[in-house]
From TrEMBL:
A GO term, aspect molecular function: methyltransferase activity
Full protein name: Class I SAM-dependent methyltransferase
Cross-referenced InterPro entries: FAM173A/B, Methyltranfer_dom, SAM-dependent_MTases_sf
Source organism of this protein record: Oceanisphaera ostreae
Alphabetized Pfam families for the sequence: Methyltransf_31
Length: 289
C-alpha cells in the first residue's frame, strides 16, 4: 500500500507520536481491542516505519454508527479514504441518497467496490478510484470517513485541515488524530469512533464596528478548534471572556470593565467575519495587519 518514498516520517511527527505515548513499532495504538486487525501483511524497515495498511472491512454496526455520527444526508458528498470494498459509500447511498467517492490504492478492492455498487443499484451515486490517499484531490468532500492508523491519520491531518472547507465532518473508525482532539467521541461495542469538524482559520487581528458605534478589536490565536486571545473596545483593553469555534461559526464574548459582556456570533466568510445572529454587529470583522 505504502512504500518508503510515499510515506516519510519527519522528526516533528516522531516527537508528537512519542509525546502521545506511541512507539513506532507498537501497532496497538489507540484502542485496546484490535483482534479484527491482521498485521501479517505489514513490513518494517529499521526505522520501524509502517509500510502497509491491512485491509479489514468495517462491521455493519460500525458502518451505520459512523454515518450517524457524521450526520450524513442526501446533501453530502462523502469521501472514504481507504474505501476497501466500498461498503460505507454503498450504505450511505442506499440509506441516505448521499453521493460518494471511494479511494483505495488496491485495484482488487476498487473492482470489488464497483461490482458491489452495481449489484446494489447505486452506481449512479458513487465513484471509486485507484489512487494514493495522500495525493488525491479531496476538496469536494463534505464528509470524510477513515479506517486507517493513527500514524497515517496524523500524516493526513495537514491535508484535511488545509484542503477541506470549514464545517466538513471527519469520522474515524478506531484511530485518532494525535493532538487534534475530536469534537465528539463515542463507543460502538469495544471500539472508539471519533468525529472532527474542520475549523475555519481565525488566527490574526480582527476589527469591526458595533451598532452602538464602538470599535471592537480582537487578537486571536488558534490550535485546531481551540481559540484564545485578547480584546479591545475603542482602543481600551477589554476581556475576551469566551471564544468558541465550530466549523465556520465563531462566538466571541467581550467585556469591558464594569459593563455587561457582549456576545457576537460570526460566520467566517470570504476573509471576513460576518454577523450570523443578532443585531449588535454593524460591519463585518476584517483582518488587519
Amino acid at each position: 500500500m505504502y512504500n518508503q518514498s510515499d510515506f516519510n516520517i519527519d522528526d516533528e511527527m516522531i516527537d508528537e507520536l512519542r509525546d502521545l505515548g506511541y512507539e513506532l513499532n507498537d501497532y496497538s495504538l489507540s484502542d485496546s481491542d484490535f483482534r479484527d486487525l491482521d498485521f501479517d501483511g505489514y513490513s518494517t524497515e529499521d526505522s520501524g516505519m509502517i509500510l502497509d495498511v491491512p485491509y479489514v472491512p468495517s462491521d455493519e454496526k460500525i458502518v451505520h454508527s459512523l454515518l450517524n455520527l457524521a450526520e450524513v444526508t442526501s446533501e453530502d458528498t462523502l469521501y472514504d479514504l481507504g474505501c476497501g470494498d466500498g461498503r460505507i459509500l454503498v450504505a450511505a447511498a442506499l440509506e441516505r441518497n448521499a453521493h460518494g467517492v471511494g479511494i483505495d490504492i488496491d485495484p482488487m478492492r476498487i473492482n470489488e467496490a464497483i461490482e458491489y455498487a452495481g449489484h446494489t443499484g447505486v452506481e449512479h451515486l458513487v465513484h471509486f478510484a485507484e489512487a494514493d490517499l495522500m495525493e488525491v484531490d479531496i476538496s469536494a468532500a463534505t464528509v470524510v470517513t477513515l479506517y486507517l492508523l493513527d500514524i497515517i491519520n496524523i500524516k493526513l491531518r495537514p491535508r484535511l485541515l488545509d484542503e477541506l472547507l470549514p464545517g466538513t465532518r471527519i469520522v474515524s473508525h478506531a484511530f485518532n488524530m494525535g493532538d487534534w482532539k475530536p469534537d465528539q467521541q463515542q463507543r460502538c461495542g469495544s471500539i472508539n469512533l471519533y468525529k472532527w469538524i474542520i475549523p475555519a482559520k481565525v488566527t490574526g487581528i480582527w476589527e469591526w464596528q458595533a451598532t452602538n458605534g464602538d470599535t471592537y478589536r480582537v487578537s486571536l490565536q488558534q490550535k485546531y478548534q481551540y481559540v484564545t486571545g485578547t480584546a479591545w473596545i475603542n482602543g481600551q483593553a477589554a476581556s475576551l471572556k469566551n471564544a468558541l469555534l465550530r466549523g465556520d461559526l465563531l462566538e466571541l464574548t467581550v467585556q469591558a470593565d464594569n459593563s455587561r459582556p457582549i456576545r457576537f456570533l460570526m460566520r467566517c466568510q470570504a476573509k471576513q467575519l460576518v454577523a450570523a445572529e443578532g443585531d449588535l454587529q454593524a460591519t463585518p470583522a476584517v483582518k488587519i495587519s
